[in-house]
Batch of 2 targets.
Target 1
Amino acid sequence: MIDPNRIEAILEKVQKAPRYTGGEMNTTVKAWDSVPLHYGFCFPDTYEVGMSHLGMKILYGLVNQEDWAVCERFFMPWTDMMELMRENEIPLFSMESRRALCEFDMIGFTLQYEMSYTNILAMMDLGGVHLMARERTREEPIVVAGGPCAFNPEPLADFIDAYMIGDGEESTLEVCRTILQWKQSGADRMACLKALAGIEGVYVPALYDVTYHEDGTIASFSPNCPEAPATIRKRVVVNLNDTYYPREIPVPYTEIVHDRIMLEIMRGCTRGCRFCQAGMLYRPIRERSIARLLELAGSLEKATGYEDISLSSLSSGDYTCLAELIRELFKRFKEEHVSISLPSLRIDSVLKESLEETQQERKTSLTFAPEAGTQRLRDVINKGVTEEDLIEKVTDAFEGGWSSVKLYFMIGLPTETEADLDGMVDLASKVIRCYFEVPRDKRAKGLRVTVSASSFVPKPFTPFQWEPQDTQEMLREKQAYLKERLRKVKGVNFNYHESGTSLMEACFARGDRRLGAVLLRAYARGCMLDGWTEQFRFDEWVQAFADCGLDIGFYAFRRRDRNEILPWDMIDAGVTKAFLWREYEKSQCAEVTPDCRKGCHGCGIQRWKGVCHYAGVGRV
Amino acid sequence: MRVWAEFEKGARLRHIGHLDLMRAMQRALRRSGTPVSYSKGYNPHILLSFASALSVGASGAHELMEVELREEWTLDQFFTQMNAALPEDLRILRCGRLPDGASPLMSRVAAAGWRMKMIRAEDETALLPAVSDFFARDIIPGQRKTKSGMKDVNLRELIEKADILPDGTIEMILSQEEGKTCKPSMITDAMKEVLGLAALPRMELIRTHLYTRDARGQLVPLEETL
């Protein structure tokens, strides 16, 4: 254990010390020697971001339920803290027992976002764990990773011992038990890796070899030992009602990004938007029952005292009995001053009734995500939303007393032309017109329309996984064009992001194992906390690629051939390559694919028996 | 029904500021099942107030708060259920009923007791004699933040009492009266200046009591008058 006095001494000098002090309500502290397995759960971003993440709370509770294991939390320290820790030779320590990262038997990183990869290196480095997996000694932790970015595990292959692909509730305890058995066995590290590879959904990069063509594309990818399966099938929770969900979650002292109860009402999405990786990865759609949700909400509210519950899912508007659920929640919490919020509101959900109920508490701004400016491009990306839908919902919102609307778009989508950019401007103008068409005495004051344009990043396991990303010049030109045109629309606020981050995100989203060298190099050049605009150093990244002799354009701007071996081909994410290609071809002629609840498109998830209620339904 | 409670803010929470502590206490009240009253209006909040905000960096041994309940409730229930709902670093020590119409605790606070202790023994050996001289001065030049900026003050007038105990603990009672409020940081800043140090050594800081004035004008711990 680290001398508490040394930690206290630096805590007095850092900003936002409560990020590091722990002791929050509902955290678990077990006597270190009372359990044989110590799991350090690492969120590779700051406390405020990590503590807002639902997956961490689920897995933290899941592991701590077991009497043979303890799970403690680690976050990425901010730069001031990191400097002080280095200066005073204090290793990265856990929030609970304040032990160093290297003292744990296993450590797990959740991969939510490509731009957090250097934080993983920083945390291991600070925690006294060798960065390169092959250099780790038997005494060092087994380093595992999961989360959406684990579906392309290759850019971090040098650093991670084993990946858990798919729903973590399914594999986490199996992985923990395997590591515990290995720890008690005395066998070498390789024995552990091979045992882990035998668990369904686990990918161990060291057990696979890759060769490359001269042009840089992959020539072969294959297991180098009999223990490694040729393909790794993701794990899927069959029934959300039966799977673990925490009944008490840590309540931070300091304010975090999402400081409330998150109630996951369902997992997966049936919409099939072609740009959306989550929509593909989290298939099939699975709902929690209203009875189970009410029961969980009751327990969580009692255990936390939170005054806010948000319904969480990829597309809450699609929950079968949403209006009933909201009504029931209101009824249940009417006396207790709990507000219910719906975060990812889709514009084509039948929500008028629900909207009227949410406004009882307070009116924040409403978010709509048409994603593209014209119907043609919305059809290309299969965003099944029409202008009439949007106008209708916006009108409802304005009549219901909202005056602040956010419109989310993407630029750089495949097949985009100037007409699509003009479409965004047109849509924003129509929204403003909607507002003024509501009689003055019936609408709220202070119209605010925010148009936000993010840059499209092609992701693995989407129909656009073969597509090039727009170059920075192209994106900047489009941003400048929109800025100029939207400047003339009164009442609109235009937001966009610097293209450098999207470019790096694109490289790592679809990168191969050679990018491990770039990550190491970028980290050595001081890159860290890259998801924070003020910390992101684009020039250093460019230099890191150059230092490693790798070409950014190869990863970001290149159109992949249909037959190319993609770095993530060994992962079976549910959706098949054949389905994705069909979807890609349909996108090229702006042909839509309806919601799978209206008929099965044979995406591939039907191969998992009994998990998809819509598998094979009304097959066309 | 109005309830006062005396509570402890543990050392681990000394970096938690006033607003965060208020929120933690409000959530504990909700968890405990105490029938709290809410304010009317757009953003209802629990009718809870602390007798005095405790600044970041300090723990508190006998802090005080008052809360309004919407129905009759036994003090026993309040005490037991609150302690069950609080994290280990926050403890209710005592509680009681405030008569209707009694003046708010906040208005009764006249001074606060503080205890400062240097973490390292060698710092004490080196500095305590000078600290002792510092408190013996007739004029202790300090600064106070006012609406119109920083203003020079003689801290002597704001220090009700200052002692150095045999074990090296510095004990002070500092004024909290309107226009004469003295924070411990004003003392340590002045100490740094007078002693000619770039920085003071690490010290533990505890607010020991809140004081009120009795009928004869004497300072007495506020919790003892409740």
Note: The longest strand of chain B covers residues 203-213.
Target 2
Amino acid sequence: MTSGLKDVVQAEWEDVVEAIEKCYELGWTDGLPVVPPTTERVQQFLDYADRPANEVLGAVPERRREITVDKVAANAVMAGCLPEYFPVVLAATEAMLDPVFNLIGPSSSLGGAGILAVINGPVIRELDINCRNNLFGPGNRANSTIGRSIRLILMNACASVPGLFDRSILGHPGKFSYCIAENETETHWNPLHVERGFPRGTSAVTVFACEGPRQVRAASKPEAILTCVADVASSLGTSMANTGSVGDTSAILRQGQIAMVVAGTSDVWDGWSKEDVRQYLQPRVRRPVADLKRVEVIEGDVEPEDEERFIPLVPSADDILVVFGGGQEGPTAALIPSWGAKVSSTAVTKAIRPPAG
Amino acid sequence: MHDGIHLEKVGIPSATICTDPFKVTARAMASMWGAPEYPTIFTSHPVGGLPREAIRSRAEELLDEVVAVLTGVEASHLTPTP
């Protein structure tokens, strides 16, 4: 058996266990065993998506890497995907290679970003992608392997090898796999991709370079839930509440985007749109100058008026990604801060092309 | 690293300053671009976000090294990108 790629290592294997061990030797894994990317299996993925093997999806020019469809296929195979998942992985890759995502940043930084993928549209039902209980947890093949593909593509195709070009200080578990779907059928809210300009009835994936999800438990009123989420999002110590790489000399702090995943039942949010949620949250995600001075984010002595001078941590309401998903047993949310400043990496949504035929 | 190497390759002298945690990455990037011996100046992390005075004193610390690199590198040391 051989690998399906023409411009990288080819290997011969006697049996499956040896093949898996060979993949370790070649440095192709994330530490967990991979499915050996045989020529035949990679071809199945290419055939399913009906995309030429050498089609270039984008590049990481700083590392002299061109990302072709066959490289993505090999990594999706290794992650354990089914061929049916491959169009989703392709769209996620195209999204990561969009210039505003600035892949070189989140894939190399000390900040240790995970790349969250949020899937929307009919593909959720077609591929049985989990959008309910244990949303960020294990147990669903599509979520686990699509998310894992993203990391393997970063490591193998984009050279984000830990310790080499991936300089994460801590990283987080989402760097293994970080893929969710929105529960579109049990909410009155517009799906994320529709809000971001894609037609209803189409499928899309949104990628967001971010920290891990922080669970937020709250009472059952929207204002109480959002007050808790705003409090968590306003924590000291996030990337957003820091200086450096602000990209705009008029801004004191980095600021960044946030994602909020809303669990519980939809009726809690009767009378509220996602836009209402964003408008309520954005001005409340902030920190007084006094606190920022106390932790040396801002230089200088704390003046009395600093207690009442607030700096927003999210630039605009549009920089809050609201997703409905998770279990419905009680109002709970997840707050996910961005890895870096918005100018360093901005969330990107790309359409998932339906398979051939 | 990327920018410095490319400026040198088009004949513009450059001095690249990199923070300590990125030493391994800097060497890997230089090798990737066919310039494994590309001289790099290292300083403590971070540089981004430092207040003006701290940046100034950091620049003063590194000045001699920067001058040495700018006046000592010959573009012929850099192999062309294949």
Note: The first strand of chain A starts at residue 56 and ends at 60.
